[in-house]
Amino acid sequence: MTDRPSSGVARLLLVCHASTAATARAVFPGDEPLDENGLRRAAAAAPLGARPAVRGPELRCARTAEALGLRAEPDPLLADCDYGRWRGRTLDEVGAAEPEALATWLDDPAAAPHGGEPVTALLGRVSGWLAGLPPGRVVAVTHPAVIRAAVVHAAGAPARAFWRVDVAPLARVTLTGRGGRWRLSYTP
Questions:
Q1: What is the CATH number of domain 10-82+117-187?
Q2: Contact criterion met (CB below 8 Å) for 81 and 145
Q3: C-alpha triplet 33, 39, 45: angle, nearest 5°
Q4: Which residues form a coiled coil (predicted)?
Q5: How many CB atoms neighbour CB 155 within 10 A?
Q6: Is 169 within 8 Å of 38 (Cβ atoms)?
Q7: How many CB atoms neighbour CB 181 within 10 A?
Q8: N or C: which terminus of the chain carries fewer CB neighbours within 10 A?
Q9: Residue 59 φ/ψ, nearest 5 degrees
Q10: Which run of H or E residues covers position 147?
Q11: Phi/psi-derived region of residue 40, left when phi > 0, alpha when psi is between -120 and 50, beta in every other case
């Protein structure tokens, strides 16, 4: 999956998928395609070419990878967070219908009042994936939540820091690491 330089360094370029109707409306996502703006912006972005690549299994990641010129293999560990019964609803709708549940979820990374995946489980999944990366270069097209989790892990930040990281559509974050130590840089 990656080329292996003699340095033993992993160089990971995380690319957030392009916009969808869910991102435009601030809706907890399902498996939706890119919207017209997302498709246009992804196609206009600098192509990433024939680099080794992986992606989240969802349609929005597949379409973004294709638009960037990547032949990316799906990886279930790069799947978006499971938002359970909140999928397809806006944050405002959830806040109006379940204010205590939403407040708990935003305050406690181990909580999953929506019946889906808690932030701590997402952090564990992404941390495990990062730990398994071999030396070399790879591109991963994935979701804002997965990139947030990778940044929190790379920075050695507590789980509560997850909500302090914003990731825009098509944002790029580079992680460079060896032996479990990561350095990160962000490219808008």
A1: 3.40.50.1240
A2: yes
A3: 135
A4: none
A5: 13
A6: yes
A7: 9
A8: C
A9: -55, -40
A10: helix 144-155
A11: alpha
- CA–CA separation, 153 and 138 (whole Å): 18
Q: Are 141 and 17 in contact (CB under 8 A)?
A: yes
Q: Are 31 and 159 in contact (CB under 8 A)?
A: no
Between CA 78 and CA 113 the distance in angstroms is 22
**What tokens were used for 92?**
């405002």
Over the chain (188 residues), the average pLDDT of each successive run of 10 is 60 96 92 95 84 95 95 97 96 96 97 97 97 93 98 96 95 90 79
- Say what the pLDDT of residue 4 is: 42
Report residue 112 as tokens: 């999953």
> What integer pLDDT is reported at residue 2 of this predicted model?
43
CA angle 83, 69, 27 (to 5 degrees): 20
DSSP per-residue codes, 7-32: T--EEEEEEEPPPBHHHHHTB---S-
> How far is it, in rounded angstroms, from Cα 160 to Cα 102?
15
CA distance 15 to 43: 14
| Nearest to 84, CA basis, from 121, 32, 126, 29 | 29
Quote the tokens at residue 27: 């809706």
The amino acid at 168: A
Q: Phi, psi (5° rounding) for residue 173?
A: -125, 130
H helix or E strand, kind and range, residue 44: helix 36-44
